Amino acid sequence: xxxxxxxxxxxxxxxxxxxxxxxxxxxxxxxxxxxxxxxxxxxxxxxxxxxxxxxxxxxxxxxxxxxxxxxxxxxxxxxxxxxxxxxxxxxxxxxxxxxxxxxxxxxxxxxxxxxxxxxxxxxxxxxxxxxxxxxxxxxxxxxxxxxxxxxxxxxxxxxxxxxxxxxxxxxxxxxxxxxxxxxxxxxxxxxxxxxxxxxxxxxxxxxxxxxxxxxxxxxxxxxxxxxxxxxxxxxxxxxxxxxxxxxxxxxxxxxxxxxxxxxxxxxxxxxxxxxxxxxxxxxxxxxxxxxxxxxxxxxxxxxxxxxxxxxxxxxxxxxxxxxxxxxxxxxxxxxxxxxxxxxxxxxxxxxxxxxxxxxxxxxxxxxxxxxxxxxxxxxxxxxxxxxxxxxxxxxxxxxxxxxxxxxxxxxxxxxxxxxxxxxxxxxxxxxxxxxxxxxxxxxxxxxxxxxxxxxxxxxxxxxxxxxxxxxxxxxxx
Length: 477
Known about the structure:
Layout lengths: L10 E2 L2 E9 L3 E8 L5 E7 L5 H16 L8 E2 L16 E4 L6 H5 L10 H20 L2 E2 L8 E6 L2 E6 L6 E2 L18 H4 L7 H16 L10 H8 L8 E4 L5 E4 L10 H14 L19 H10 L2 E7 L4 E7 L5 H12 L6 E4 L20 E8 L19 H11 L2 H34 L13 H11 L3
Parallel strand pairs: 13-16
Antiparallel strand pairs: 1-2, 2-3, 3-4, 4-6, 5-6, 7-10, 8-9, 11-12, 13-14, 15-16
Helix pairs in contact: 3-5, 3-8, 7-8, 10-11
Organism: Sinocyclocheilus anshuiensis
Family: Belongs to the protein kinase superfamily.
Protein name: Inhibitor of nuclear factor kappa-B kinase subunit alpha
């Protein structure tokens, strides 16, 4: 039986419909809030015009959702009894946890992410979405429609967590491990799906790899300005390790095995991430993912993913040059060993190094160097002894602090600049704006410091309270 269309503030008992969150392949998703408890849930309502085949998919999505329990897969909830009457054509409703931080597409669309997400955000995505995909595959489920719009964000105890949603196109492998029909989002689909060939879990590897690349660089890897029907014919003969294809000024397709600059990734993580993408973006579905590890029976791509996530990387800002240096730490590596690496790269002798945490507190030489690594990545600050400055930056130092000449040199070492022109207009503007903003604030802060002519930073008259005050100000830059 048909129902009247939804209206803002429609009430179902104690539940008030607040807004429409979005539209999926099979229906609309609405936000409902309980007026008594303030609980919020997302309710997916099937569209009237679904044919019999899609109605079956709708029912299958609900069945799949109800049996899944994982932090990185959105959780199904019981449909409140007061809402039962709004179901259309006797098709059940799907109630889910409400994720209030939007989706990955919204995050990627922010101007500051035009060159990709911050390194810490990329690592969080790898951890969360990778864990969710492995869970689905362990439960014999292929998602088949992974894309930024189907990754939602939720704040859990102050930490942003990624969750996979929209299993309407998911395939339960208990119904047969090889599938031959699909209608979904084309830009993230594996090549074999366009050709109507049989496929397995490796289609999710391709979609995940495409998302990883986009999160690292800000655009999709293969001729992203073309429709899939156009780019698949041009990319079909790419090399097994190629992870990107762009058209040069003459319209010729050029391939690369590397991630392009500019991006926000440290050199320490670039090579392993490129290796991961080379496994996930193989054209041959049989080779994609690297096969299974003979000992652990885990796909090689996820074994490499675990290695990346277990890496302890420290970013060190040289406060005299504003350059960021990144180092990979072993689990028990001492601070002395880290300082030797710093000396080799910066020519600042070990005895002249001062390593400060974001709070201004010096590192404890008795503890391992990993004392400064939280959630895998953190910045510390390097000053030469006797020239301690109050300049600091909370979180990761943006790559825009390097001069554009340095960025340009990095680009030319990775990929001809002409191949990146279509992607860099907005990127260059953003980098220049960030440079100008930082330098103006840095100048203001240094002027404030030097105005205290009667005080010496290293002298006895220097107030530690005043130093901490300046550190606090610099952390807001």
